[in-house]
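Entry:
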Amino acid sequence: MDFDKKAEELGLRLGPPAKPVASYLPWSIVEIEERCRLLFVSGQLPMENGVLKYVGKLGKDLDVETGKASARLCATNVISIVRAAAGSLNAVQKIIRLEGFVNSSDGFAEQAQVMNGASDLFVDVFGEAGKHARFAVGVNSLPLNAATEVAALILLKP
């Protein structure tokens, strides 16, 4: 499967990666004995064209469907970083793990459904290679009051 073509068919706009909002790298690649390259993608916020699109707490300011759209946008930004870091989405061997953070109001317990917005996109783009382990946790705040944040660990082809 051609992952670059699949992303294009899905209409994903993979622009340049968003600039970090603090003092960190957007990604880091670790190579292990020329056989294994791990790409660590820093947490991505729901930024679109340099603007934070989804702001607020799930269960108070935003509903689950809006949260899923926010998580999907975060995942799109992760995929943009993958392309920038690896040169092509076809360098992906396996999405290992997604880390999902949901800006949640007290009592909100649907973080898993919100993060499906990100998980489903990875499977849509990468097929079997996009199936991953994941965590989805509720937090009382995120940078810039973003609704969601997604980070990833990805195995690249040697």
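The chain has a mean pLDDT of 95.
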